Amino acid sequence: MTEVAGGSHPGHSVLVVPVPALEPLVRARHEHYDADYVSADPTFAHAHVTVLGPWIDRAHLSATDLQGVERIARATSSFEVRFTRVETFPNGIIHLVPEPAEPFSALTAALWGAFPSCPPYAGAFGHVAPHVTLDALGPGVTAAVVRSWLEGQLPLRTVADRIQLSWYEAGGCRTLAAWPLTG
């Protein structure tokens, strides 16, 4: 596990499973839209599947909280995942769908069960569909355009092998901790 950095800053934490193979594309889209949220931390996962976020505010984060995530990571085996489909949510978010989605859903359920005051996406959505956000519909950006950016990369096969605690803050995005999936 990587230790949590000290200090109190505005922002929010998110528990994610990194998808390193998609990092160049997703990071480039962050650079295009909002460079303040591009991290200088080489371990930061711009490309990821969110498993619980927003999570606990840094001012209230305790060693017990970190140990709770570690227990879940130790009880969860790494798993192979495929990304083959680009889809669009009703709100215009263009994303990749993991196959199978169930291991991500199980991680979300386990984490939310351990931290019931932190519902996925702050309870904004009923059903939470695991996904990797790629872009959003807009001028010159359609699902077909995003698919074309991924030509030759799909189907993508990778292994989900860790949970990371990411901190999102303008000018300060970084990884605070990481736990291997070793169950």
Structure report:
With 183 residues, the protein is α+β, with helices and mostly antiparallel strands. The chain has a single domain (12-180), classed as Cyclic Phosphodiesterase, Chain: A (Alpha-Beta Complex). The protein is 23% helix and 29% strand. The chain is built from four helices and eight strands; from the N terminus they run βαβαββαβαβββ. The chain has helices spanning 23-33, 63-74, 102-114, 143-149, and strands at residues 12-18, 48-52, 79-88, 93-99, 132-136, 156-160, 162-168, 174-180. It starts with 11 loop residues before the first strand and ends with a strand. Mean pLDDT is 93; it is low at 1-9.
CATH class call: Alpha Beta
Indicate the percent of residues in helices: 10-25%
Describe the oligomeric state of these chains in a short phrase.
single chain
Distance between the termini: 15 Å
How many structural domains can be distinguished in the coordinates? Answer: 1
Total of helices: 4
In CATH, what is the homologous superfamily? Cyclic phosphodiesterase
**CATH arch. level architecture:** Alpha-Beta Complex
Low-confidence stretches: 1-9
Order of adjacent strands in the largest pleated sheet: 2-1-7-8
Quick one: overall form? Answer: globular
